[in-house]
Amino acid sequence: MSILAEKSLDHKAVMNQHETLFHRHPANPILTGKDWPYSMNSVFNAGATLLADGSTLLLCRVEDRRGLSHLCVARSVNGVDGWQIDREPTLMPDVEQYPEELWGIEDPRITYIPELKQYAIAYTSYSRGGPGVSLALTKDFRAYERLGVVMSPDDKDAALLPRRINGLWALIHRPMTPLGAHIWISYSPDLRHWGNHKLMLEARRGAWWDANKIGMSPPPIETPRGWLMIYHGVRRTPSSSIYRLGLALFDLEQPEKCLIRGDSWMFAPEAEYERHGDVQDVVFPCGYTVAPDGDTINLYYGAADSSIALAHGSIRGLLAWLDANGHSEHAHDRRQRHG
Ligand code: BMA
Asked: What is the distance, to the nearest Å, from the Cα of residue 41 to the centroid of all Cα atoms in its chain?
């Protein structure tokens, strides 16, 4: 082989490399239906939080054998194994009082709200009119105060920010429109009445990995440089859809303002348990915890709608990747790049 040919091969090898931002835990999947103390179909898409004693709590979406979902708590000292799972469903749809929960409750995102000294859970309530966003508050993941539907159908993929922005609570969510599914943010003085709706991040168009349909995955991560959001992009293919993850950074005091958006996806279904299951090719995180070092992020994600998996990364690493692989999202550039 000529030196020239060798060089171009080397070049190709380098070009073909992409950074691994999230490392899968060797024990994956860390929770499956086999671990459950009661009869069900599958467990996936769990909200996550650290409790005051440093242990990890997952609020898991459990799909029963009718196809309807409820939520169930699993606790672990190290966040990896030794899960203590509630013996019975923790939060069941309450159809009498909340008819919007008729077809189940799904995909919870947990935010601890220091001002309220409570956890806020934004979840999908699956009503006759389609999926909507509901809110509930809890101090202990045993008793819950439901606030009911805060975003009417068709809307999902929601989380509350942990503090008020200019005096107002802020909810990120994903309404569905005939023109596409984009990420919005809305504001409220009391968590009940919502307005001041702003488009936050638009799905791209054409052949992009995040064309037409995107949604926030876990609640955004507050960093000194802005709210760091892991979002999913849904690529429709003739045979199915592929759920992959990308990154974007938003202004701390004006969160609808996107500062940088990554171009390529940074995590995608690759492992067997992500590629095959009830719904193939899905990685779907609804929560994370941050280690005491303030940088290591433990991402909990649903894999193929069939299990819960864990991957760890570095917040500094995610920001550095965005700097190297992202662009600002000004309207003009956006049109130029996204079509
Ligand atoms: C999305 C949500 C998720 C699910 C994913 C793949 O629309 O409903 O709960 O994991 O589809 O089925």
From this structure: 22
Pairing label, strands 144-151, 155-160? unpaired
For ligand 1, what atom is nearest to the CA of residue 282? Answer: 6
One DSSP character per residue, 8-34 reads HHHHHHHHT-----SEEPTT-S-EEGG
* 224 CA to centre of ligand 1 in angstroms: 31
Cis peptide before 281 (omega within 30 of 0): no
pTM as predicted: 0.94
pLDDT at 55 over 60: yes
The three state secondary structure string of 96-140 is CCCHHHCCEEEEEEEEEECCCCEEEEEEEEEECCEEEEEEEEECC
What atom in ligand 1 is closest to the CA of residue 305?
10
What spatial distance separates the first Cα and last Cα of the chain, rounded to whole Å? 42
Strand partners, 50: 56
* CA dist., res. 149 & res. 56, Å (int): 27
pLDDT digits (tens, 9 = 90+) for 187-220: 999 999 999 999 999 999 999 999 999 999 999 9
Q: CA 127 to CA 129: how far, in whole Å?
A: 5
Q: Which SS3 state, helix, strand or coil, does residue 270 take?
A: coil
225 CA to centre of ligand 1 in angstroms: 30
Mode of pairing for the β-strands spanning 169-177 and 118-127: unpaired
* CA–CA gap between residue 282 and residue 116 (Å, rounded): 34
Q: How many whole angstroms separate alpha carbon 60 and alpha carbon 191?
A: 24
How much distance in Å is there from the Cα of 279 to the middle of ligand 1? 8
Query: Coil, strand, or helix at residue 268?
Result: coil
